[in-house]
Amino acid sequence: MDLIADTSYLVGLWRGQSWATDYAYSNPEKSIGLPWVVLGEFWHGATLAKHDPVDVAAFLSIGIHVHDATLVVPVYAQICAKLSQLADYRKMSQNDLWIAAVAVALKKPLLTRNRRHFDLVEGLELEVLQP
């Protein structure tokens, strides 16, 4: 696995947005991990939008699903402890904290369009996609 993706990238692929598909087509050698939180966020949105669950499941088979929490939980705790001392801590959602923890724990860059969601996390390498 080369990268960890956040939900923005997955949604961009689902919608066929050029910034996401261009990245995928120009980087076919890169394998992408999908944290369980990303899968949950994506399924939530797909369910609200009433997308066919069969189509959603087929689409999600494109990535490597990241399930091993034993490496991630201690990193999540460290990130939360460090950020809780900052005034800006509440600007980062719990889901984004978990996604960042997966990338930090696995020492992989996080593929995202939302730099501001993740800038507070020390040691997190970002690969930011521009529209």
The gist of it:
The chain contains seven helices and five strands; from the N terminus they run E-H-H-E-H-H-E-H-H-E-H-E. The chain has 131 residues and is an alpha/beta fold.
Task: Outline the structure in words.
This protein is α/β, with parallel strands linked by helices and 131 residues long. The protein has one domain (3-128): 5'-nuclease (Rossmann fold), CATH 3.40.50.1010. It is 54% helix and 12% strand. The protein has helices spanning 7-15, 18-26, 36-48, 53-60, 69-83, 94-106, 115-118; strands at 3-5, 32-35, 64-66, 110-112, 126-128. A 5-stranded parallel beta sheet has the order 3-2-1-4-5. α7 links the parallel β4 (110-112) and β5. The model has no long low-confidence stretch (mean pLDDT 90).
Please specify the SSE layout and strand pairing.
Layout: E1 3-5, H1 7-15, H2 18-26, E2 32-35, H3 36-48, H4 53-60, E3 64-66, H5 69-83, H6 94-106, E4 110-112, H7 115-118, E5 126-128
Parallel strand pairs: 1-2, 1-4, 2-3, 4-5
Count the beta strands.
Answer: 5
Number of domain units: 1
Oligomer: single chain
Pattern of helices and strands: EHHEHHEHHEHE
Query: What do the pLDDT scores average to?
Result: 90
Question: At the fourth CATH level, what is the homologous superfamily?
Answer: 5'-nuclease
CATH topology: Rossmann fold
Continuous helix count? 7
Q: List the strand order in the largest sheet.
A: 3-2-1-4-5
Radius of gyration over all CA atoms, rounded? 15 Å
Estimate what percentage of residues fall within beta strands.
5-15%
Enumerate the spans where pLDDT stays under 50 for 5 or more consecutive residues.
none
